[in-house]
Amino acid sequence: RAKGEGRNTYRFFDAQMNEAIAERRELEGDLREAFERGDLELHYQPLVDVGSGTIVAVEALMRWQHPERGWISPAVFIPIAETCGLIVPMGRWLLQTACAQAAMWPGISLSVNLSPAQFRDRDLVPFVAATLAEAKFPAERLEIEITEGLLLDASLKPLETLLALKALGVKIAMDDFGTGYSSLGYLQSFPFDKIKIDRSFVSAIETNPSAAAIVRSVVGLGQSLGMTTTAEGVETAGQMAFLQGERCDQVQGYLLAKPQDPLRLTALLGTWRDGAFTTADKDMSLQ
Ligand code: C2E
Ligand code: MG
Ligand code: MG
Ligand code: MG
């Protein structure tokens, strides 16, 4: 009897797994089609300088509205793009589009996220150089965000590539700091200009004393190492006040502004009042 049950359990998992695989394959096909048709979009979220209240940079974030399923999170479709290789052409499109767009926003820097899979592309560095030249976008205003996962994979030669990007004048940010396989050694061995403190710590500042202590320490660490610190996912005035008190350099989050399409972002840049942290026009945000 037990044997029979076991078999049924296997069948059950087989069926579930087959369904998951089929679903993923379907999404992959839809994503490829959406990309080829030009249906992917870019939204931009401001990074605000804490001292002056000025928008100093925007982070480009990919958006996909599926014809039947509605908006699909990049947390879902980026991993699919990574495993099927689509991330390389998608990432190239993002870089070209975002550089051309950001070149029209005077003085604003641009942050783009790069997946480990994009570091497997031997032409990454020359492609970045050519894209900057074509968009007439200064290398100093481009910042590449990477996560700790990249640094773990020696086969990707992360140090070599990051140094080559730095040689172009591009800035490097460690994204989602404090999650994953954080090692302080990375801050010493890799040429980071910025540490982005993960939203999981920032969102707990007011409720969890350990989270507040971690944020305080990372800001101090950034200061000692001469790196810019950016707090991600700032949603409340209380979090903002804490970060101001700790002299965190930059903030990013729904309290300031949500990611939004380029037209809305252009309008926001026109109406933004430096220092008016809590009056960011949330109605201008799409999602
Ligand atoms: P990330 O790079 O850490 O981007 C920040 C994420 O936090 C974005 O999610 C943003 O919308 C969200 N966020 C910002 N402020 C707040 C806030 O106050 N509250 C909350 N709850 N969330 C906030 P999004 O756009 O869903 O992107 C998720 C992740 O997907 C990104 O995390 C990034 O790792 C990845 N991603 C997005 N676009 C791209 C891309 O073009 N290429 C690559 N390689 N990865 C991308
Ligand atoms: Mg990022
Ligand atoms: Mg992040
Ligand atoms: Mg994050």
Automatic annotation (TrEMBL):
Instruction: Give the top-rank taxon of the lineage listed in the UniProt record for this protein.
Output: Bacteria
Q: Which UniProt keywords apply?
A: Membrane, Transmembrane, Transmembrane helix
Please verify whether the record's keywords include Glycoprotein: no
Tell me the stretch of the parent sequence this chain holds. Answer: 435 to 721 of 724
Protein name as it appears in the record = EAL domain-containing protein
Q: Where is the EAL domain?
A: 24-273
- What biological-process terms (Gene Ontology) are attached? signal transduction
Q: Name one GO cellular component term.
A: membrane
Q: Does the keyword section mention Membrane?
A: yes
